[in-house]
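Appendix B, example 12.
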Amino acid sequence: MSAEAKSVRGALTAVTLKDLIALKPAGEMIKLSTPRVRAYAAGGHLSPFKGRGVEFDESRPYQEGDDLRTIDWRVTARTGKPHTKVFREERNRPVIVWLDLRTSMMFATRGAFKSVVAARAAALIAWSAIGNGDQLGGLVFSESGHEELRPRLGRRTALRLLQLITVNPAWVHGAAPVDSGAALHALKRLTRVARPGSLAFLFSDFIGFDAECERLVRELASHCDVHLLHVFDPVEAELPPPGEYRIHIDNRVVTVNTSDGAVRRQYQEAFEARRAQIQNLARLPSVRLIPCSTADDPSMLLPRHFAGR
């Protein structure tokens, strides 16, 4: 498979930088919002910060009514007159994209590969963040390793993130064993990179998402707002009617028989268990779930999601 976007039996299997740049107008139409309002910021949107969400600006002489907790004791001791600290609210919140490009994401029976849908959704969020004047950061990972982009402002940051997505080795390498350790490592990095008040987007099929991964999401949600975009193919939710089907995996063709009732039940139960696990995380106050099929168009799905906020 080349890095150029191409179609196998109608399913789009890769993305190009040009594809993701073309999503800029659609992304800028998405106005990111958080589950609840915490404070008014000096920027163009309501502040998502948990806690004060402010940084020190200057000291000035104490005035009646000032909060005693903000007294600047160093300046007070130096001048002999009480001074208080003045804070200004942070104007730019970090928006962090966490994109899963593991082998399990390189699959679809219709629409586009899960990886393609996730990459498009990540690009839309990136352009939305830049359009809103927010800082943008990202982690793009697969079994081959991960690339990390610290949160920064500006269009160049978005272009750098999109480039990291499109040049990832996962698009060109052959199939590799699904490695839940890759997701675990990337989640650990995310919890260290995400500042309190960040808006984190996790794009994944969440296959191999174990208890430790779940714990890290809970830890992240304790100080950030988290959106889980669960990407899945309809065939993963339910096998097609009983019969024999041919599946193309890289350059191989595998025949699958779906006639065994017990196998069908086990298959569906496994998917439902994973979906229930993600839905359980979405019960946390700071977590929102966005189900996304490979047949869905993220440029239509995401605006509806945030319009409902």
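DSSP finds ten helices and 14 strands in the chain. Confidence is low (pLDDT under 50) at residues 1-7, 35-53.
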